[in-house]
Records
---
Amino acid sequence: MGLRKAKLADVEYIQKLINGFAEEGLMLARSRHMLCEHIREFLIYEEGGQIKGAGSLHILWDDLAEVRALAIGKDYQKKGLGKMIVDSLIEEAKELGVPKVFTLTYQPGFFAHLGFHSVNKEELPQKVWQECLYCVKFPNCDENALLIDINLND
């Protein structure tokens, strides 16, 4: 089926994918409530009736969005699926007129390969004060912050 917007019926499968990696310490866990509340932000990749990848674009401010909850099934990693999802999310940000997209990740090399560059978390006050306060890792966040500037004129 390919890449598509997520539906509420996908929440259980998205949660299983994400939280499987969270159990390995590779990303933060997501609650069913969070996924339902933000389902419209998610893109998924489906093949053979199974979700093989997911990621979301969360708007924080008129000039800042976040790629978050990116998870690719182990049997689909290193095949371009993560890049496809991130590229689609960045294109969505561009269409919305959001000039900067960031991520907080344990996989900085992947995002650097896509053109993101490292930044200090302090450069992301909208994220820190809106959402990080409620994270189980606050104030000792060990994720890497990376950002990409989007050329809105292309």
---
Amino acid sequence: MSVERVTLITGGSTGIGAATARALLKQGHRVVITARDADRLAAFAASTGDRDRLMTVPGDTSDDSHITSVVRQTVQSWGRLDNVIANAGFSLPGTLEDHLPDAMRAMVLTNVLGPALLVRATLPHLKESRGRIVIVGSVAGVKNTAGNLYSVTKWAAHALAENTRLLVTKDGVGVTLVAPGMVDTPFWDNRGGLPEEAPTMTAEQISDAILFAINQPKGLDINHVTMRPVGQIN
């Protein structure tokens, strides 16, 4: 009898996280999603119609106690953890000349500390299952733009993916960095909306890449996927 794989996704209520959760549920995974907005989480859960294989836990992914609690609930409820997708993150409008210090701090904590805490908390279980970690980065993590503090956080996330790979590949744990370009998701709400006439990808296209990485056979590790819509220059 096949074992249902268990996947934990941060930032899973909308956008790439939600699209990935839907795809995984269709594949038969049990899925745990966490995000700050409890109402959005509840709305997403209701939209799936799959309460038996979906668990939602509201909270702040930059809070170690929240991450520890989510991982504990996951393993206690379903007995294992096979995949972890560090997707939670946000950007600020303008440049670091415009950002308020508290907003800068929140972005750094969410985009950098959050994934690191997730890796730290889940590694014992992923070593046991010989599972996989996916960190959602950005093309902003491979190309600098003037005053872009979000880009700084994504360069850090990309570094986290590689130094995590170096740490755990000997234990049979796979690590993938997925770096999308412009994606049409609520991510842009904080930045005043998508730039006009910008080429974009869909959240579902990014989730396809995430599933491609975690569905690889044992012994094969996809390390870095960079994706842009045709027409995106930077």
---
Amino acid sequence: MRPPHALLPALGALLLSLAGAAPACSGELPGSEGRTDLSAKDKARVEAVTKPTADFSKEEQYEAMSGGAATSTAAVNADSFSHFSENLTFQQEEGFKLGNALFRKVWVSSPSSTQASDGLGPLFNSRACQNCHLKDGRGHPPEPGDNTSTTFLRLARPPADEAEQARLDKLDVLNFPDPVYGGQFQDFAVPGLAAEGRMQVEYTEEAVALRGGETVSLRKPRYFVTDLAYGDLDPATTLSPRMTPPMIGLGLIEAVHEADILALADPDDADGNGISGKAALVRDKTGKLLLGRFGWKGQNPTVRQQSAEAFMNDIGISTPDTPASHGDCTPAQVACLAMPVGVQKRLGDTEAPDPVLDLVTFYAENLAVPARRKASFAETLAGKKVFYEIGCIACHNPKFVTRRDARDKAQSFQLIWPYSDFLLHDMGDGLADGQQVGLADGREWRTPPLWGIGLTETVSGHTYFLHDGRARNLTEAILWHGGEAEAAQNRFADLEKADRDALLSFLETL
């Protein structure tokens, strides 16, 4: 592991140069100056407690409390991802419950007698946040005859000229939408308007051999669209399927100090371990350069921005942060732009005026991570050792201590165990979508956190994993890892069956 702060100034300058920023902006990136929120004594404590363990004879102190003091210790059941952080105040609990009600709110098309619920669409993927994030858990891929909306297609094309390339280099945009269908493919529409079309997927099977003679079949998807209502897609437009991720621990992720994430980045693989994770740099609505840490390609820096963009793209609802009341409608979609919107001037200038976005953001920030199960069991510890030994922690960094100056005290100075470095990694041709999103190229994805992964079936009723749900279980998910993770994947495939089973048992406890 690299020393946590020694490389930060040089790394910050390097990342800014990758983003096309001028040298004068070298101090623009938060975290490049190290952890200024800690005293020297606290810094030493944090470095000691977050150092990867070498002792697998027992569980680490506080290891079962994945979300620190915010961890939910409620009984395990289908609602395990829907509890609030246990260290909230009584007043904050009230805000969480109000946010939950808005998260479940079903929006309707305009005009409607409900008024405060007006504004759906005109084009949309879902009518409520909860419909995509079922029980605040993981979505699922489309299946034959399935009409649900927990997987959608992101649309993007490369820059068409030097001017567009310059905007991309400066991170003024993450990519460019399809000129007709926009940045997201919407398969639903309000009455009187045609939906953009239908998303389709076909699978082929590929066999992978494991040590001991076992064979695993991986299903490789091919996504395409049919019944296009507004003409053809641009020939350069790429389709990237995105399955909705679990909602737990988002506020804690935002409270991880930028310096600690940057310290794990190694874009040129200076240490020669084959892992070259890089930070996702994005701009917020004010143009400020921030560290991207949410979304499959790290395209959003905050829970609030992630929530606002979901309101606009997924439901077609405008907020103070995304005031486009026609959602993702493009100038080419004249009929869409002619549809009525749900802005009620007596309530505000957008369809979801303040404090709607505030409350939904607070709810999303405080969905608690469940406590670990069986963290001290011998088989769990054996699997944890394998997880470390085959190199999984090179990307799935086990733990962080959140910043002391976090905006919310519930997330301040907590030892958390997300098992992610929140960096972008090349995952190989097998998982490539060919779509650039900011600094993430068509082969790169942000490392998803693993906390809660063992409760996927309990909460979501399935075990589909990866960005498009192609993996039907954890074994398949691991075997799809390529690129920087190929060496770890090969070591997994070459394990004795007992060691593979132990590793899977460990993951099931997270």
